Amino acid sequence: MLTYPQIDPVAFSLGPLQVHWYGLMYLVGIGGAWALASLRLNSFDPTWSKEKLSDLVFWASIGVIVGGRLGYVLFYDLSAYLHNPALILQIWKGGMSFHGGLVGVLLCCWLFGRRNGKGFFELMDFVAPLVPLGLGMGRIGNFINAELWGKPTDVPWAMIFPTDPAQLPRHPSQLYQCVLEGLVLFAILWIYSSRPRPTMAVSGMFLLCYGIFRFIVEFVRMPDPQLGYLAFGWLTMGQVLCLPMILIGAGLIAWAYHRQPLPGAAR
Questions:
Q1: pTM
Q2: Which of 72, 154, 163, 203 has the greatest number of CB atoms lying within 10 Å of its CB?
């Protein structure tokens, strides 16, 4: 069994202001996405300036934060937030939904694309490979907060999290997600998108791969205590929300290559 590293969730304080690692991870993810986007800006649209790219990153960041928080409130713990609405603003304590953040990014990018003459999927194919870095950083934030841990296990890398009332060795599921949703998904999308692909294909690949990775990890991750399992003694809210992603992602890839087959491909 590995020892959980005791990391203070507060990175540093500036007088009464406490800066949390969870928030810093979001800043690292957003900054990294901006840097990666800069590397491919010319191949995406050589007429775009760095300022316009910064505007896109800003809009997408608003979608992540607002959508992620509202998604968690709506999907995972609506009654608690209705009872105490002030909790909605306490994002440093965690409580962000990827699926809500995804909806927020889609909406903001759609609005941004309309204002800048870019088709929705054209823009999303550019944005999709940038997302895994933020996802990976977010999972590190979850790990530092000692939240969203996994099921009890006897694997050699199990950890006892200080927030676990039972103090049982558990899967460090946050790190599994960091690797799959962050590192592996980034590698897949970055390599896949480095060559010309039909419009919608990169977006579809993101939805498909993320949905599969998240669905798998949910088997070793504890469900949110206020929800538990939704069906069959194993189906979680995360898995329910990932099923449409998998189906839509596969459908987008198939439709993309049907509409715009690769040169030389049989039809």
A1: 0.89
A2: 203
